[in-house]
Amino acid sequence: MFLNNYIKINDKQYTILEKIGEGSSGKVYKGQYLNQFYAIKQQEYLGEGEYEFYQHLNQPKESQKFRNLIQIYDVVKIDRFIYIVMELGESSLYDETVNNKIDKTNIRFIMQQIGSGIKQLHEDLNLAHRDLKPENILVQTIKSEITQETQQIFKLCDFGYVKNINNLKTKAIGTPYYIAPELLNNSNDLYNKKCDIWSFGQLIYELISGSLMFQGDTIQKIQNQILTITDGDIQNLIDKLLLEREYKELLKNMLKRNVKDRYDINQVLNCLKPKSRSQSRNTSVESKNYQNPAQISIRTTFQFQGQIIQKQQCPLMENKFNQNQCQFIQKTNNEQKRFPINNNFVPNDQKKLDF
Ligand SMILES: Nc1ncnc2c1ncn2[C@@H]1O[C@H](COP(=O)(O)OP(=O)(O)O)[C@@H](O)[C@H]1O
Ligand SMILES: [Mg+2]
Fold first, then answer.
1. What keywords is this UniProt entry annotated with (predicted)?
2. 208 in helix, strand or coil?
3. What is 15-87's CATH topology?
4. Between the CA of residue 88 and those of 21, 165, 265, what are the distances in Å?
5. Fewer beta carbons within 10 angstroms: which end of the chain, N or C?
6. What rounded mean pLDDT belongs to the chain?
7. Gap from CA of 221 to ligand 1 centroid (Å)
8. How far from each other are the two terminal CA atoms of the chain, in whole angstroms?
9. What distance in Å separates the CA atoms of residue 72 and residue 28, rounded to the nearest whole number?
10. Which residues pair with 75 in a beta bridge?
11. Under 8 Å CB-to-CB from 113, ≥6 apart: which residues?
12. Helix (H, G, I), strand (E, B), or coil: what is residue 305?
């Protein structure tokens, strides 16, 4: 909590206006400094990859070029919390989807935008996101000064699980509905950044169909479905969508179980290049309303280990699940390497000020 509703970060005193979001790792507030609004996330830990990511963005020129990643302005540690000052998004893709506010006829543009954000992470920064889902994609509306037309821009946020792509080993990390099968099996193989393509495919399937591909009221049930579904089953589900053939083919290639067969981000973006002016915008897609927002508790990011089975203290799950089948490790757990942020990057002489 903030005392007197303000916080001083690097000599800027932000007024805290309201809480705008909360996930497994932190709380996000809308803040104001002078006449500008910001999002300020308060969390207890920084992930190893997250730290690396913020260091990249610490170079002002660098952060400019990542148009589809939410911009980060400041990361500081004050007392026991880390504060991340970011560009403010208007809403999340999740909110827009459940409120049926997304113009699905513009699916090519939406996929290009999210795909560009993934490419900026995968190719420019050499990182995988590992927790792509509608909640972690923010939507902003911009107005062209020339034509006065408004346009939605999609930006990736929540970099708490980003990781260097050459070194992906920690399995079973992510959010149940979107997690790729290779992160759930028991092999010790390294996996790669294509886990994000699977999640991307899942969220597009959800957007178009109005429901999740995997249904279930427990994590275990969803996990079993992901582990047992075949490429053929997935193709049948995609074929049922009212969607142009080229997008169906693309989705099938994004949702291949075998990582080697699955498209990488460049292949995805190549398929989305506009072929002609008329094709660059509207597409016929089914206009079903969103049906199943799914249990909020299962939509939460978590890290668990394949089939193992030992309940840990977890306030979120306690009431909802009486399953002993899932080892839920919160982000604050030591299992995942966490470390205090580096003094060069984050001044640790910040005094505890106004909260
Ligand atoms: N920059 C932002 N602008 C607006 N809303 C945001 C911003 N960052 C996060 N949010 C909202 O807060 C929620 C939680 O933030 P997130 O970074 O995803 O935290 P967690 O790691 O706990 O999931 C997001 O799903 C989104 O709705
Ligand atoms: Mg999140």
1. ATP-binding, Kinase, Nucleotide-binding, Serine/threonine-protein kinase, Transferase
2. helix
3. Phosphorylase Kinase; domain 1 (3.30.200)
4. 11, 28, 26
5. N
6. 79
7. 27
8. 6
9. 13
10. 84
11. 68, 152, 153, 154
12. coil
Tens digits of residue pLDDT in 130-181: 999 999 999 998 888 888 888 889 999 999 999 887 767 766 678 889 999 9
Are the CB atoms for 299 and 135 separated by under 8 Å? yes
> What percentage of the chain reaches a pLDDT higher than 90?
51
Give the CATH architecture of domain 91-337.
Orthogonal Bundle (1.10)
Domain segments of the chain: what residues? 15-87, 91-337
DSSP, collapsed to helix, strand or coil, labels residue 173 as strand
What stretch of H or E contains 232?
Answer: helix 231-239
Nearest to 209 by CA among 107, 91, 92: 107
Per-residue pLDDT at 353 exceeds 50: no
Residue nearest atom 23 in ligand 1 by C-alpha distance: 23
Measured in Å, residue 136 CA sits from the centre of ligand 2 at 5
Categorize the per-residue pLDDT at 315 as very low, low, confident or very high, splitting at 50, 70 and 90: very low
- Residue among 158, 161, 300, 301 whose CB has most ligand 1 atoms within 8 A, to mutate: 158
240-258 average pLDDT score: 96
* Residue-wise pLDDT tens digits, 293-304: 566 667 777 665
pLDDT attached to residue 339: 30
> C-alpha distances in angstroms, 97 versus 117, 211, 217, 233, 330?
19, 10, 21, 25, 27
Q: Which residues contact residue 44 at a Cβ distance below 8 angstroms, ignoring those fewer than 6 apart?
A: 25, 26, 80, 81, 82, 332
- What confidence score (pLDDT) does residue 332 get? 29
For 91-105, 218-232, 330-344, which range has the lowest pLDDT when averaged over its residues?
A: 330-344
